């Protein structure tokens, strides 16, 4: 009930960093973007279409969001984390290898098929990869209206300002030329 009451507070008031709506319509609670497949013709062969408070203002304070993930054959949703949410992934079609890494650096992984669900605990690094010969589509539910996402490789190798080549070279036990190569591939 509180979330609906907050919708009538003047716009100067913010909750969770988002302005409360002084008035609203049904469209503030609607988003049709998950109905359409995303384009997977990119270097990773996957695309995530989010449905969170940025697309649906009425989600503010409700503590939920969703996303659609489309995968080409071989497509990867690279290692990433959601700092503010746990995730439950429902596979609509295809087959995915999924996994997360515990805080004790243990990999928990399995292959899921159409109609199956896998969960990723809040804040843990996780991934999904389509190792099948046909496209795959998944829907994820997250227990935050703004779960955030931090893609590990981009966070380290495409930060602004950049992380020192020496730091990355020592951390990954590679030379600075390899660091520069990786950075050039991840540049916007």
Low-confidence stretches: 1-6
Lateral arrangement of strands in the main beta sheet: 3-4-11-6-9
Helix content: 10-25%
SSE string, helices as H and strands as E = HEEEEEEEEEEEEHHH
Strand share of the residues?
25-35%
Supply the CATH architecture of the largest domain.
Answer: Sandwich
The CATH superfamily of the largest domain is known as: Jelly Rolls
Q: Which outline best applies? A: globular
Number of helices: 4
Distance between the termini: 42 Å
Rounded mean pLDDT is 92
Counting DSSP E segments of at least 2 residues, the number of strands comes to 12
Structural class: alpha+beta
Overall domain count: 2
Level-1 CATH class name of the largest domain: Mainly Beta
**How big is the Rg?**
19 Å
CATH topology of the largest domain: Jelly Rolls
Main beta sheet: 5 strands, antiparallel
How would you characterize this protein structure?
The longest helix has 11 residues, at 176-186. This protein has a five-stranded antiparallel beta sheet with strand order 3-4-11-6-9, with no helix packed on it. A five-stranded antiparallel beta sheet has the order 8-7-10-5-12. The protein has a two-stranded antiparallel sheet with strand order 1-2. The chain has helices at residues 2-6, 152-157, 165-172, 176-186; strands spanning 14-15, 18-19, 46-51, 65-71, 76-81, 87-93, 95-101, 107-113, 117-120, 126-129, 136-142, 150-151. With 188 residues, the protein is α+β, with helices and mostly antiparallel strands. A hairpin with a 2-residue loop joins strand 1 and strand 2. The chain folds into two domains: 44-150, Sandwich (Jelly Rolls); 158-188, no CATH class.
């Amino acid at each position: 009930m509180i979330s609906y009451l907050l919708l009538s507070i003047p716009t100067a008031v913010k909750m969770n960093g988002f302005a409360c709506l002084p008035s609203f319509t049904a469209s503030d609670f609607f988003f049709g973007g998950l109905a359409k497949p995303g384009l997977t013709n990119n270097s990773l062969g996957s695309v995530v279409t989010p449905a969170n408070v940025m697309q649906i203002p009425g989600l503010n304070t409700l503590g939920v969001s969703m996303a659609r993930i489309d995968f080409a054959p071989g497509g990867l949703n690279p290692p990433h984390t959601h700092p503010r949410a746990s995730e439950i992934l429902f596979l609509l079609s295809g087959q995915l290898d999924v996994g997360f890494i515990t805080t004790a650096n243990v990999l928990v992984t399995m292959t899921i098929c159409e109609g199956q669900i896998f969960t990723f605990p809040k804040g843990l690094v996780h991934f999904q990869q389509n190792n099948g010969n046909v496209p795959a589509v998944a829907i994820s539910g997250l227990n935050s209206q703004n779960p955030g996402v931090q893609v590990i490789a981009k966070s380290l190798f495409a930060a602004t300002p950049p992380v020192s080549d020496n730091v990355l070279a020592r951390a990954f036990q590679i030379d600075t030329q390899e660091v520069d190569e990786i950075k050039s591939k991840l540049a916007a």
